[in-house]
């Protein structure tokens, strides 16, 4: 399809003082797809999203939304976007209906149309019963849904979802996923950030992995996962086990490099297929490496990260806080 | 109960090309006004649900009017009765200014809430989230100014300007309050938190109200101070209010008050919008 890209960003840069929060990121999101931005806390996902949503100035580089330049025509870009943030951005003192009505009015709907849109969305998101309750009585899941509903009032063609399911229970999370799929079926394009590989895997057609402000990988979920192995064999070695010997066995049998945490006796082995787990275990038996427990799991974001970047995600959390502090400091100066 | 059912695949209702073609480059004046009124509606809803917001505009006029009349009346004018025509317009100006201050404090509190993220992401005029609550605050100025006159009449104030004069004085106080509130709105957009807005605003508010002719005749002041008092816009508001309420005459003071209000708006409205834009 030769349609204009929903998002076309080249060399995006954002600095907070000394810290480069977004570092020359290129991004192309095609119309009608769900594009996942995966990364740990503070990797620069939200900052990038805010830049694309006209909420933060772009320090260098260029971004277009459906061909409209973000920096020079922010007002037009805002008419094409629905933004749902990490924290519910609805008014606590108003009811659900009043919130949606207000957002509809602010976007130029006539009063009756805004009321109709509010009713339609509350029905669509299963919130009719709570239509006239103040938001302070809403559960976390209900808030998220109302927040998403608020982004959809004028049916924008591009929806930004910043960690839409963080903090939700598994059932509510599944409902949110269904809702997001429905949006795409209606013709929307969705850009979502997430910390969960699982979520990106379930929803996104393509994923970009962001780390310390840089894009370190991009591809389909399958491509990303094969870079780490389709599953992980998690071993708990017996006390006094020979880790070097175990490592050699893994290299020989599975052909991959295990991730070892001797302090807790843990060893994680990436595998192309879960079947190879048996081979590794037989290798351990033959070599005399004793094991306390065994499980096979899908790769986690940590493992994807480790494989792609060579370091673990936890380090970045500290950087993230620094970045936010730097941002706060900057605002105070202004 | 919370299932989100859509059944079969929903129809494709979103067409990006159409949406792009429909976008407009900027907000029109009509849109800006409509958005400001929507934001005013929101502020009024919030006022109704948090009635404690009315404490300052109800208690302050009642308390201060009675307190000042009985404490200063004898000393300044010889008796409470003869002090009232001088003092009531002063209290009106003072309570309206105090009410302005809370506009800034509330804006700051409001801006820290998540919903402001959405206002910023919406294609709406940047002035609407600032001007909207200020329009709603006209109700608070009305209550503050109205109650001051009511309390004055209870103590024995008989405004010579009659009902029309008093109404004129109230309208002038509301307009001036709306204009001066831009100063505090600006402080609200630059301060770190609501507490610092309050502290900073007090520093402006006290000299403005007390270094004016609100409570004492200017001729009793030393010359340097008297010069400041004469150029203080609050003095003009107080004089204009006295002329309206006591004589039902529209004097040049009304013009000076309105001019001062326009100057304040011309300076602080653009500053506020600029600072709000940056505060993302």
Textual characterization of the structure:
The complex is a heterodimer of chains A (334) and B (280). Chain A is of the alpha/beta class and 334 residues long. Chain A has 2 domains: 7-225, P-loop containing nucleotide triphosphate hydrolases (Rossmann fold, 3-Layer(aba) Sandwich), CATH 3.40.50; 231-297, Alpha-Beta Plaits, CATH 3.30.70. Chain A contains 12 helices and 14 strands. Chain A has helices spanning 45-52, 74-78, 96-106, 111-124, 140-151, 170-185, 197-203, 221-228, 243-253, 276-287, 301-309, 314-333, and strands at residues 7-16, 19-29, 34-38, 60-65, 68-69, 81-84, 158-162, 189-194, 206-211, 214-219, 231-237, 259-261, 266-271, 291-297. In chain A, the strands form 3 sheets. Chain A has a 6-stranded mixed β-sheet, sandwiched between helices. Chain A has a 4-stranded antiparallel β-sheet with strand order 2-1-4-5. Chain A has a 4-stranded antiparallel β-sheet with strand order 12-13-11-14, with helices on one face. In chain A, a hairpin with a 2-residue loop joins β1 (7-16) and β2. The longest helix of chain A is centred in the C-terminal third of the chain and has 20 residues, at 314-333. With 280 residues, chain B is mainly alpha-helical. Chain B has one domain. The longest helix of chain B has 32 residues, at 80-111. Chain B is elongated. The two termini of chain B are 37 Å apart. Classes of the chains: A alpha/beta (334), B mainly alpha (280).
